[in-house]
Amino acid sequence: MASKVQEIVEKYRRDKGQLVPILQDIQTEYCYLPKAALEEAAKLLDIPISRVYGVATFFKAFSLTPQGRHLVRVCLGTACQVRGAPRLLDRTAEALKLAPGETSPDMRFTLSTVNCLGCCALGPVMVVDKKYHSNPSTSELQRIVEAAK
Amino acid sequence: MSVNVLPRISSPEELESLRRDILSRRDPNRPLITVCGGTGCQTYGGSDVYQAFVQEVKKQGLEAGVGVKATGCHGFCERGVLVIIFPQDILYQRVKVEDVPEVVAETIVKGNIIDRLLYVDPATKKRHTKELDVPFYARQHRLLLEGNTRIDPTSIEDYLAIGGYAALPKALFHMKPEQIIDEVKRSGLRGRGGGGFPTGQKWQSTRKAHGDIKYVICNCDEGDPGAFMDRSLMEGNPHSALEGMIIGAFAIGSHLGYVYIRHEYPMAVENVTTAIKQAEELGLLGDNILGSGFNFRITVVRGGGAFVCGESTALMASLEGKVGEPRAKYVHTSEKGLYDRPSNLNNVETWANVPQIILKGADWFNKIGTKGSKGTKIFSLVGKVNNTGLIEVPMGMTLREIVYGIGGGIRGGKKFKAVQTGGPSGGFIPESLLDLPVDFDELTRVGSMMGSGAMIVTDENTCMVDMARYFVSFLQEESCGKCLPCREGLKRMLQILTDITKGNGRDEDIQLLERIADTLQDTSLCALGSTAANPVLTTIRYFRDEYEAHIKEKRCPAGVCKDLITYSIIDEKCPGCGLCVEPCPTKAIKFVAKRKPVILDQKLCIKCGTCYDLCKMKAIAVK
Fold first, then answer.
1. Which residues in chain A have their CB less than 8 angstroms from residue B39's CB?
2. What are the residue ranges spanned by the domains of chain A?
3. Which pTM value belongs to this model?
């Protein structure tokens, strides 16, 4: 892990100002921010681990726990909210047998909510990995879940 | 994709000759199929439709004579996938992969119109062939979004072909920096990101500020839920914002710019990165731009995802690799911003307006709009209207014209309740104010704000107390926690609002909410906190009766708040069709027999409302 983190940090020329993109790259690599990687990054950038931890917990994009292979995100933005996003979230949680924020024990899915995906005209929307779905019904949800192995 | 490798350009004359060359290679009468590649249409399978057109044109041996292009967002997301066929300007909507062979064989080859794919106006039942005849488009004034339907966002040639990068040489060679600032000031352009601060004035103070190094920043963080105008511009026409930034940087005296983009917008990141590379290769960015001696570079930075980063000082902290906390603005960012150096921040839409102002002049621009707000504004018209999508209208158009004229009224014949503008920091505007002309000052006057331009329409089934709770819950989660009024005030407001929606409201709660709201407005450090009271105050101001129904009668008039409602089957209306049985997530509805009403088990019902939405016979009652 140390060499991978070093590679990422070097890519940004050990620039402390690039902490956010560095953490984004680490997250892309491991699908979350492992503790050891954060410590390594802090050492290489010569900044206290507290600052790295602060940034890692402040922004929504980062996760300190391992994520499932498939990321299911339900949009709770205003436009989706008025068109029934809470119901879509209930249905999705039911279909995945997960509460928002949880990851399935077999590491297949992580269910999370997001504040806006920017395709408000089709609300309520959800995204599975990179594919958007506009208000899927209970049976469509079943198909989507089964398709993602 | 641009196929030709373009030569580096080192003078305005070479740029014009390249433009003439590109145009000479293009026949305006050549049939061209453009497929919307915006996120909305992608959801409906836009990229499959695009691929199908490419294949079909090849299959019918028409590659030489017919062009196919994937463009940015056309705006009418409700009707995706959208396809426009040039030169006739035919708009086909809800196009599916299966329709593609017929479109090519009939419309492209024979010139016949396929009636089935045309837009039918639900009000007049009239079919419209041309894009601009469709009421959704006819009432708009698309200065910025026009480009989105015409160009491939990954092709700088396309941008040049519609007159792009014509303002840049004018600014660099025929205007002094002061003249540019003066022109932008006279145009009356105000920041489209929310604050509405006069853009020219901001540029001037950054120019005047002391320091050798100055920054210009383009904000594409767009944390406002319900807004996607910056996303669509950046995805569909990234060069327009870049050209504005280069002109702004020249006027301000900056040599380094940043584009700060939400990480949830991967296509925007990709397209602007491609656009920067193309502009650099062509000599429109980098050292000695167009041979003028002016140097300017742009770096793309992905945001970490935090609503508070819409606040300029928080965004700059995040750019420095720190936690995105705002600071008090005793000293403006135009003097001490990023790395304590003079910094000028505008959002995508503001930057995209600049090239047209420089090219066509301040007098042209300031004829559009109202006394205090000039030009056009892009809104995302979403929620419970028939025609959802992205619209661009002149400032001062009434809410009624927007909701009913362009939006086509409320879905399902329901009754209009309110429009929410300005995102979580904005407010709700009731029916009595539908004739309000929409501009910066009018929206503020009625207790809301322009924000970045989200316009969320709600109907009789939207509970205003629940919406206030929703926004406060969003804001308390996004509050950075630095100052006390915002950190604690929002938490307490959320507690009170949650109690009310659960039927535990007390008589004095409304007054208490108003008191906390006043404190937030007066004492918060940044705009997140000081405007956080708007959704609460406007719902109390215009929908007090709904608060009172929740508190005094323990009743939710809109039928939303779960603890205050029950669902039941109206036996006389239920035909026993069973449509609601399978979708019920808890299997609470039992099928009895055809023509016998279904039975709802109250013990299993989780009040999710799925059956209510599905029932065509209106046989589900909410009380």
1. 117-119, 132
2. 2-58, 70-147
3. 0.91
